[in-house]
Design goal:
The protein is mainly alpha-helical. The protein has one domain: Farnesyl Diphosphate Synthase (Orthogonal Bundle). It has helices spanning about 5-10, 20-45, 60-65, 75-85, 90-115, 130-140, 145-170, 175-200, 205-230, 235-260, 265-270, 275-280, 285-290, 295-305, 310-325, 325-345, 350-365; strands spanning about 120, 125. The chain has a two-stranded antiparallel sheet. Helix 4 crosses helix 9, helix 5 packs parallel to helix 8 (about 175-200) and helix 9 (about 205-230) packs across helix 10. The protein is flat. This is Polyprenyl synthetase family protein. InterPro entries: Isoprenoid_synthase_dom_sf (IPR008949), Polyprenyl_synt (IPR000092), Polyprenyl_synt_CS (IPR033749).
Length: about 375
C-alpha cells in the first residue's frame, strides 16, 4: 500500500464523505507525497549533492507552497462534482487522488505564471524565482542570478506537474482523458495570454477565450467534471455540470482580472500593478478601449505596448474606474451569477446541495482574494 493510500484509508468515512473529510484527506495525501519524494531522493543518494550555500530544496519548497490552509478551492470543486454526480464511499479514494492532483497542478501553473509575469509576490510571500535569484546574488554565485532563479522555479513547477500526473495515472480512462484535456487547455490559455500581450491584440472574443482556458476551466469546470466522472455520473449530468461550470468559471476569471487591477495586495497576496504593467489581454482593457476619453488614450496605448511606469499604472487604474470599466465588470458579474443561479435546478433538487451552490457562486464572483 502506498503512503497516500494509507493516508486516505486512515480517514475513510462510514458514509459518503463530506467536504471537510475530503479536504483533510487531500492534506494527508499531499503530505504523504512530500514524504515519498524525500525518501526517493535519499534512496538515490542525492543528499551528497546538496548545495548548502544556495540552499535549494525543491521538496521543502513544494511542501511550503502547498501548505496554505485557505486554498484547496479546486479540490472543493471536485468534491462538489462528485457529490452532484452521485459519488459514494467506493469512489471516494479516487476522488481524493484527483483532488490532491488538482492542487499540485495549480501550483505548477502558479509558479510558471509567476516566472512569465515576473511577479514579485504570491500569496503574501516572495515568489520562488525572485527568492532564488536573491540567494544567488547574496553569495556571489556563478552565472546570471535571474536565469538561476527562473531555472529553480521551473523545476519546482515540473516536479509539481509530475506528481499531479502520477496521482491521476491510476484513475479511470475517462478521468485521465478529462485531465489531459484540462492540462492542454491550461497550457494553451497561458500561451495565448503571452502571445496576445506580445502582439498587443485586444478583442472581446480572444480575451474571453483566454480567460476561460487559463483560469475558468481548470479552476471550476474541469474539477466539477472530474469529480462527476469519478462518481460514475451519467453523461447528461456531466454535460450540465460543464455548462454551469463554464458560467461560474467565467465569473471567476473576470473577478480575478478585477482583483488584478483593483485588489488590495495585503488581501490578495500579490501586486495589483502587474496586469496593467504588462498589458494583459483582459476584458477590462477591451472595455477600457471603448470607454476611456481622449485624455486617457496615451495611458491606454502605453499599457498596450507594455510601457507604463508605476505612476502611470495608478493613473490608468483611476481613469478606468472613472470611465466605468469597473462598473461594467460588476454588471457582467451580476449577469453571470444570475445565469448560474437559474441553472442550479438542472443540477440538483436537493435543497442543501442547491444552497451550497448558491454560496459557491457568491464566493467566486465577489471574493476579495
Amino acid at each position: 500500500m502506498t503512503a497516500e493510500m494509507s493516508a486516505v484509508s486512515a480517514v475513510w468515512p462510514t458514509t459518503s464523505a463530506d467536504l471537510p473529510d475530503t479536504i483533510d484527506a487531500v492534506d494527508r495525501v499531499l503530505a504523504a507525497r512530500v514524504a515519498d519524494l524525500r525518501q526517493i531522493l535519499i534512496d538515490a543518494g542525492c543528499g551528497l549533492l546538496d548545495s548548502p550555500r544556495l540552499g535549494v530544496d525543491l521538496v521543502t519548497e513544494l511542501e511550503c507552497r502547498l501548505a496554505d490552509p485557505s486554498k484547496r478551492f479546486r479540490p472543493a470543486l471536485a468534491h462538489r462534482g462528485w457529490q452532484l454526480g452521485g459519488g459514494d464511499d467506493r469512489s471516494w479514494h479516487e476522488l481524493v487522488r484527483v483532488a490532491a492532483a488538482m492542487d499540485l497542478l495549480h501550483l505548477f501553473g502558479l509558479v510558471h505564471d509567476d516566472i512569465m509575469d515576473r511577479s514579485q509576490t504570491r500569496r503574501g510571500r516572495v515568489t520562488l524565482h525572485v527568492d532564488s535569484s536573491r540567494r544567488h546574488r547574496e553569495i556571489g554565485a556563478s552565472g546570471d542570478p535571474d536565469h538561476f532563479g527562473d531555472s529553480v522555479a521551473i523545476l519546482l513547477g515540473d516536479l509539481a506537474l509530475s506528481e499531479a500526473n502520477s496521482l491521476v495515472g491510476e484513475c479511470s480512462a475517462a478521468v485521465r482523458h478529462a485531465w489531459r484535456v484540462m492540462s492542454v487547455e491550461l497550457v494553451q490559455g497561458q500561451l495565448l495570454d503571452v502571445t496576445h500581450a506580445a502582439d498587443s491584440r485586444r478583442d472581446a472574443a480572444s480575451s474571453q477565450l483566454i480567460a476561460r482556458l487559463k483560469s475558468g476551466r481548470y479552476t471550476v469546470t474541469r474539477p466539477l467534471q472530474l469529480g462527476a466522472l469519478v462518481a460514475g455520473s451519467d453523461p447528461d449530468v456531466i454535460d450540465r455540470l460543464i455548462a454551469w461550470g463554464d458560467v461560474v468559471g467565467d465569473a471567476f476569471a473576470l473577478r480575478d482580472d478585477v482583483l488584478g487591477v483593483w485588489g488590495d495586495p495585503a488581501v490578495t497576496g500579490k501586486p495589483a500593478d502587474d496586469d496593467l504593467m504588462e498589458g494583459k489581454p483582459t476584458m477590462l482593457l477591451v472595455w477600457a478601449a471603448e470607454l476611456l476619453d481622449d485624455r486617457s488614450r496615451p495611458l491606454l496605448n502605453a499599457c498596450r505596448l507594455g510601457r507604463l511606469s508605476a505612476d502611470a499604472v495608478d493613473r490608468l487604474r483611476r481613469a478606468m474606474e472613472a470611465a466605468g470599466v469597473r462598473r461594467r465588470a460588476e454588471h457582467e458579474l451580476r449577469a453571470m451569477t444570475q445565469r448560474a443561479r437559474a441553472m442550479i435546478p438542472q443540477l440538483t433538487d436537493d435543497r442543501a446541495a442547491a444552497d451550497a451552490l448558491h454560496v459557491l457562486i457568491d464566493t467566486v464572483a465577489w471574493r476579495a482574494a
